[in-house]
Design a protein that fits this description.
It is built from 17 helices and 20 strands. The chain is α+β, with helices and mostly antiparallel strands. Among the domains are: about 120 residues, PAS domain (Beta-Lactamase), CATH 3.30.450; about 210 residues, Histidine kinase-like ATPase, C-terminal domain (Heat Shock Protein 90, 2-Layer Sandwich), CATH 3.30.565. Strands 1, 2, 4, 5, 7 and 8 form a 6-stranded antiparallel beta sheet that branches. A hairpin with a 6-residue loop joins strand 12 and strand 13. The relative contact order is 0.07.
């Protein structure tokens, strides 16, 4: 009986009292405190050394890039002042001068071209011609050169596609452009000199530059656009993220930032003239003390403190930690997913209370997980059905048949137009998995679809899309218009005797956005309209996307709320009007809601 009472008193003792009795709090706290401050001081010193080394390394990389750019700019000056400026293009050719400079710099330069103000090619080295369907006057580098004639302009990395060339004509380049003065006889006019710098030669400048374990260096423009990154392809695909937008606002020097839950040291160095920035990134956790003597001293000090405390507290700590270890084992079983496992309840009063609370929490988690799983499965099933039905093989096969027919009948321009429309159609259909896109992209998607169907049905119907410029940046749901237009074609006018007309119009009323799809087709009865919203299988055409009206209506309500959706007005032989009601929210705001919903279900 006395032993049981003593055990009860022990179990009812608070953990705070047990720690006070069994542990030498003062010695432990003092030893660890001294070690902590010593380590922090030495770590700060090491951190400062690493920052200085990083800044030196970044400065060296920036000087290399700056020297590289000066070399290209000197080439541009040589082309202009040595070949173009003093040449009379009415009586002589400067091809030999261009070719000579190209041969001297072909390891770094892909193309050299001289254009007149109207975009016509004057000379090019190596010999090339501009593609027939390309208007160089609309290219960014051309417009930039004529806008600020006194400057030389560097573009972002891009694929140079304006020239007809060999097998490697689609190469990544950085275009340098500048306005030049062209002389023809007694008259002068403006032109544009283009030097395409090989992107691979820029990449080589960063080969071998490292920032320690896990560190890397990248190059960006002054406004935060990436010019070079060792994981460029992964960033473009969305599999890897980089904090370059925030880094664009950093001044030269070292910065400590938090990105995706990790601290990192960011060194920034600007490059003159272009405003480009070289950025070095080093994870903070890899920064360690850099001398063996310091490391050994810290290890010895920690080992000594731990050894002394281990001798003093070997027995008494076990009396407190054993119940905690048992509870930890129970929590580990719960973490592995076995929520039905019993939770250990024992030890001091607080630990027993904690064990009971964990058991109750596990029971609540089981209930919540069952609810979340049901909601998650329903949401995922809807997303899967939507994605699965976005691209119907019949539509793709029919479109490809049209393109093949056009090519066989030597209608190359029409075939190219169809291929372009099909590419835009699938690009927006995929949208990197996003469900929220801009209204402009959604209208462009339905425009591409109508263009393809217009070719397929041999102009059996006409179409028009109306939307003010200010509406194109508003948020919209992907693939909400194409199923409605599809129904208008296949159900509304495929069997009409006359010509069909389809109108897609968007307007804004206060804080509300309305988009209407109307046609003059066969129309529907009231019962047919009700059937479109019924819980049974939808009536989308097997030739089209497979997305029903009910699906579109539910997706609008899911993303924007029950007060939004679509309504249908239709009369037999008089046509159909489908009105979509959405909030007039900017795309960024609508996209944030989508990300929040994705986080809710993924979390």
């Amino acid at each position: 009986m006395k032993e049981r009472k003593r055990e009860n008193r022990l179990f009812n003792t608070s953990i705070r009292t047990a720690i006070f009795i069994y542990f030498t709090v003062t010695a432990l706290a003092a030893g660890l405190l001294i070690t902590f401050f010593l380590y922090k001081r030495l770590s700060n010193q090491v951190l400062e050394v690493v920052r200085e080394e990083n800044q030196s390394l970044i400065g060296q990389a920036a000087r290399s890039v700056e020297s590289y750019l000066r070399t290209v700019m000197k080439l541009s000056d040589s082309l202009y002042y040595g070949a173009v400026k003093n040449a009379n293009l009415a009586t002589q050719s400067i091809y030999d001068e261009l070719m000579l400079l190209y041969d001297s710099n072909k390891d770094n330069v892909d193309n050299i071209a001289l254009f007149s103000e109207d975009g016509s090619l004057v000379e090019a080295a190596p010999a090339a011609r501009v593609k027939a369907n390309v208007d160089v006057t609309k290219e960014d580098w051309f417009l930039a050169a004529l806008e600020k004639t006194e400057n030389q302009h560097f573009s972002l990395p891009h694929v140079q596609y304006i020239f007809d060339g060999g097998e490697d004509q689609y190469r990544w380049v950085i275009s340098l452009s500048r306005a030049v003065e062209l002389t023809r006889g007694t008259s002068t006019s403006q032109g544009v000199l283009l030097v395409d710098v090989s992107y691979s030669s820029l990449e080589q400048l960063f080969d071998g530059i490292t920032m320690g374990t896990g560190g890397y260096v990248y190059l960006m423009s002054g406004d935060g656009e990436l010019l070079y990154h060792p994981k460029m392809q992964l960033i473009d695909s969305g599999r890897v993220k980089e904090n370059h937008r925030a880094a664009a606002g950093y001044r030269d020097g070292n910065h400590l930032e938090e990105f995706e839950g990790a601290s990192r040291i960011v060194a920034v160095k600007s490059i003159g003239y272009t405003g480009w920035k070289v950025v070095g990134v080093t994870p903070e956790h890899v920064v360690s003390l850099n001398t063996i003597r310091t490391r050994l001293f810290i290890v010895f000090l920690i080992a000594l403190i731990l050894f002394v405390l281990a001798l003093i507290n070997a027995y008494i700590s076990s009396r407190i930690t054993d119940p905690i270890k048992e509870l930890e084992k129970s929590v580990g079983v719960l973490e592995e997913g076995n929520l039905d496992a019993p939770v250990y309840i024992g030890g001091s009063y607080e630990i027993r209370r904690l064990g009971k609370s964990i058991g109750d929490m596990a029971a609540q988690i089981r209930v919540l997980m069952q609810d979340i799983v049901r909601e998650h499965e329903a949401k995922r099933k809807q997303e899967f059905d939507t994605l699965q039905s976005q691209i119907n093989p019949h539509f793709l096969y029919n479109t490809l048949d049209i393109i093949v027919w056009m090519i066989e009948n030597e209608q190359k321009a029409e075939a190219a137009q169809a291929v372009t429309a099909l590419a835009r159609f699938f690009r927006i259909s995929l949208s990197r998995g996003k469900s929220i896109i801009t209204l402009g992209d959604e209208l462009e998607h339905v425009r591409s679809y109508l263009m393809i169907q217009h070719m397929r049905f041999k102009n059996k119907f006409s179409y028009e899309i109306r939307a003010e410029e200010g509406l194109l940046g508003l948020g919209s749901i992907k693939l909400m218009l194409q199923p409605l237009v599809e129904n208008a074609i296949y159900h509304g006018m495929e069997f009409m005797d006359g010509d069909g007309e389809i109108l897609v119009a968007a307007w804004k009323d206060g804080e509300e956005l309305y988009v209407q799809v109307s046609d003059n087709g066969l129309g529907m009865t009231e019962r047919q309209v009700e059937r479109l919203f019924s819980d049974g299988p939808h009536t989308a055409s097997p030739k089209g996307s497979g997305i029903g009206v009910k699906n579109v209506n539910e997706r609008i309500k899911l993303y924007f709320g029950e007060e939004y959706g679509l309504s249908i007005e239709s009369e037999p032989d008089e046509g159909t009007k489908v009105l979509l009601h959405l909030p007039a929210a900017p795309y960024e705001e609508a996209a944030r809601k989508e990300w929040g919903m994705a986080a809710l279900f993924d979390g």
